[in-house]
């Protein structure tokens, strides 16, 4: 679910695997691109078109990563998962060693006040299941759950996980504490959806508002055990290539007025996947190479969707046929690419399939508003007012309504600019939870609530990243040439381009970045390091089940059972002699972790890397000095103080560590949307209007490191490659 814009509370891009906004490199409109060839040592881009430039840059910067990645993903046997994970870890090390990015932070780990009991919804870090709200326990109390109670509940969950008894224990525990529960949940949100068609978009800002209104085939329970949702059971063939799901009886589709519009049948999953492929909203490549013939349908090599590996065996049985065994397939099914869509309702809104699909047609209204989709989940959208509210009410036909504790959800708009208002709304009960910014922490301490009610939110799976633009062509926003215009001269643009193609220059920026001080601008000094991330994939996304031996630089290295993914990445990083740390055995009070410490900030190494870069750039005729600095553009919004403060903290740390031989241009806008159009909302690398991109990230869609590594694949199949200014 993945790319997450770091604005206020909810900007995120939800897409994973190899994901792009179009299907390939051969048929894109490049008429808007500004072709400015760059010549750097070993890279001759002059006279090449944009795709050729992208290929040259990718091969030079990420070719080694791709080599190790290909070896890792070729391992698909379930009895070789440990080898797969270890080799993916080696590939990730090569990705980080390329210097094209610097991990920054995760989401969560902040102080908060909340009336919502922990673990009353799924908490897996992949897919969309952790956003399910139908079975939350929300305390009907003037204040909030006490911090000590949250701590005790979390400890009990860890103890009882897998027993199936935690929910009953938690409910009794809270009732014994005197709590009663309400059936209404109120939260703040910061970004309206651009579409209600969840199958046509890879933005998390589009999937989050819909996730509670459409159920998947399978999902997770309170203890994160896989369980049936719309499917009551499933079978897997011995060769791992065929998955057959048996739907519950009596499933219904309704409109937003709760009128039945049809039975939910196996064909709705076929229609949903075909619409994903037709709409090309960034999800279609996720299942390319996984489900039979999806890649050929996406490429136009076949036009009959009946040749794709999904079929309705009968009204209640849907069958997927895979190209090859996929170890993470079941964990993937909770993500939006596999959601159903009612064929008849879609067609009633002007929707068509295959070559006839045309979302720009006057007759096409599917997903335009919340009234233009059908619902089969726990809620329907009762009303939506842009930049004001989204109101959900319980779906009377929901298959699991007997276990539904929340009957109404109120989303209340907040752009985050007035933290005083957000805090007061939570205190008054207008919202049921609030993440505490530094300003709010001061308010909470002053009014005496902090010590009693504060708890720390859990870290989610998302990793926010600083990406470096390796082949920049846009120096203003593509939506409007007057938005976020770079102050650089043409000469400075050319010099920065050459510098960004230098690995040592990029590492100088990464090591000079004081990420803890950057985070402190939002979360305060107490929590400035808590959510720091040091790798791209979460260090604890997977663990080895058995001992596994792989070669690292020609030497056999054995990782014992229970080794976390991040520790294997660190082994390759150390073997290659890099000073940054992805994982530290001493972190988390000696328990080991890849989060919560700054494994990158190193001003001395930054100076060394810059001196090496200066020497290499001088050979290309580029002088770099305090009198002739390299200018690096970053963008920010002034509407939210902490985002502006973060940008200037970045500027200060870079310029101080690098003796002002690098100057950061902070390009400001008061509008969040303008900021988003400098990189988050656009589709191609040539539209990226920055040198360093610090406000987006990626979160996992399934329980395998491939969900992150796929985002860095070439030829428009890796969703985040565009953040590097390529593809």
Topology readout:
Elements: E1 39-40, E2 43-44, H1 50-73, H2 81-97, E3 101-106, E4 111-114, E5 138-139, H3 147-160, H4 166-176, E6 181-182, E7 184-189, H5 204-207, E8 218-220, E9 226-228, E10 231-236, E11 242-247, E12 252-254, E13 260-263, H6 267-279, H7 294-299, E14 310-314, E15 317-321, H8 329-332, H9 343-348, E16 379-385, E17 389-394, E18 408-413, H10 419-428, E19 433-435, H11 438-446, H12 450-453, E20 455-456, E21 463-468, H13 490-500, H14 503-512, H15 515-523, E22 548-552, E23 555-559, H16 565-575, H17 587-590, H18 603-618, E24 630-637, H19 641-657, E25 662-669, H20 672-676, E26 692-698, H21 706-709
Helix pairs in contact: 1-2, 2-16, 14-18, 15-19
Task: Give a description of the structure.
This protein has 727 residues and is an alpha+beta fold. Helix content is 29%, strand content 17%. The protein has 21 helices and 26 strands. It has a four-stranded mixed sheet, with no helix packed on it. Helix 1 packs antiparallel against helix 2, helix 14 runs antiparallel to helix 18 and helix 15 packs antiparallel against helix 19. The longest helix is centred in the first third of the chain and has 24 residues. The N terminus is likely disordered.
């Amino acid at each position: 679910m993945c790319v997450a814009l770091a604005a206020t509370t909810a900007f995120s891009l939800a897409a994973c695997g190899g994901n792009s906004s179009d299907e390939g490199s051969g048929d894109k409109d490049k008429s808007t691109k500004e072709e400015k060839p760059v010549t750097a040592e070993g890279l001759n881009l002059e006279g090449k078109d944009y795709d050729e430039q992208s290929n040259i840059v990718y091969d030079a910067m990420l070719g080694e990563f791709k080599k190790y990645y290909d070896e890792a993903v070729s391992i698909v046997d379930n009895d070789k998962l440990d080898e797969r994970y270890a080799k993916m870890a080696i590939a990730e090390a090569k990705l980080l060693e390329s210097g094209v990015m610097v991990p920054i932070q995760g989401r969560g780990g902040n102080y908060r006040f909340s009336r919502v009991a922990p673990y009353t919804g799924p908490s897996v870090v992949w897919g969309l299941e952790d956003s399910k709200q139908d079975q939350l326990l929300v305390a009907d109390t003037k204040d909030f759950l006490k911090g000590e109670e949250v701590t005790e509940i979390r400890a009990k969950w860890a103890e009882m996980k897998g027993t199936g008894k935690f929910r009953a224990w938690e409910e009794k525990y809270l009732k014994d504490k005197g709590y009663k529960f309400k059936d209404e949940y109120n939260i703040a949100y910061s970004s309206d959806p651009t579409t209600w068609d969840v199958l046509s978009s890879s933005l998390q800002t589009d999937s989050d508002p819909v996730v509670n209104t459409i159920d998947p085939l399978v999902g997770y329970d309170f203890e994160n055990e896989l369980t049936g949702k719309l499917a009551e059971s499933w079978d897997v063939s011995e060769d791992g290539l065929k998955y057959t799901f048996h739907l519950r009886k009596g499933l219904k589709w309704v409109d937003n007025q709760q009128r039945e519009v049809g039975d939910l049948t196996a064909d709705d999953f076929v229609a949903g996947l075909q619409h994903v492929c037709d709409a090309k909203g960034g999800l279609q490549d996720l299942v390319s190479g996984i489900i039979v013939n999806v890649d050929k349908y996406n490429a136009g090599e076949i036009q009959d969707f009946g040749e794709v590996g999904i079929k309705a065996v009968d009204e209640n049985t849907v069958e997927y046929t895979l190209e090859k065994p996929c170890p993470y397939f079941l964990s993937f099914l909770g993500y939006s690419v596999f959601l159903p869509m009612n064929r008849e309702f879609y067609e009633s809104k002007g929707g068509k399939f295959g070559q006839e699909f045309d979302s720009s047609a006057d007759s096409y209204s599917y997903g335009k508003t919340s009234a233009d989709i059908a619902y089969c989940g726990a809620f329907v959208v009762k009303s939506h007012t842009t930049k004001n509210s989204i109101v959900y009410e319980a779906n009377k036909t929901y298959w699991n309504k007997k276990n539904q504790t929340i009957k109404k959800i109120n989303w209340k708009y907040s752009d985050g600019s007035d933290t005083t208002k957000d805090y007061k709304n939570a205190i008054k009960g207008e919202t049921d939870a609030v993440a505490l910014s530094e300003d709010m922490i001061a308010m909470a301490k002053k009014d005496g609530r902090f010590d009693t009610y504060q708890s720390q939110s859990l870290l989610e799976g998302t990793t926010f990243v600083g990406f470096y633009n390796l082949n920049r062509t846009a120096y203003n926003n593509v939506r409007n040439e007057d938005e976020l215009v770079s102050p650089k001269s043409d000469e400075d643009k050319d010099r920065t381009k050459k510098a960004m193609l230098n690995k040592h220059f990029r590492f100088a920026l990464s090591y000079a970045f004081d990420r803890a001080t950057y985070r402190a601008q939002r979360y305060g000094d107490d929590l400035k390091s808590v959510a720091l991330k040091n790798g791209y994939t979460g260090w604890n996304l997977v663990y080895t089940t058995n001992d596994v031996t792989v070669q690292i630089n020609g030497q056999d290295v054995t990782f014992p059972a229970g080794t976390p993914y991040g520790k294997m990445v660190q082994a390759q990083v150390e073997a290659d002699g890099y000073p940054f740390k992805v994982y530290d055995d001493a972190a988390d009070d000696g328990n080991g972790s890849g989060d919560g410490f700054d494994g990158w900030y190193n001003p001395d190494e930054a100076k060394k890397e810059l001196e090496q870069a200066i020497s290499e750039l001088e050979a290309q005729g580029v002088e770099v000095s305090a009198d002739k600095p390299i200018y690096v553009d970053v963008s920010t919004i002034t509407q939210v103080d902490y985002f502006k403060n973060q940008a200037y903290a970045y500027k200060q740390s870079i310029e101080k560590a690098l003796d002002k031989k690098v100057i950061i241009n902070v390009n400001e806008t008061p509008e969040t949307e303008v900021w988003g159009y400098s990189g988050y909302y656009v589709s191609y690398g040539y539209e990226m209007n920055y040198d360093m991109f610090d406000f987006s990230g990626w979160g996992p869609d399934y329980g395998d490191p491939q969900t992150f590594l796929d985002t860095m694949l070439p030829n428009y199949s890796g969703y985040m490659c565009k953040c590097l200014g390529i593809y």
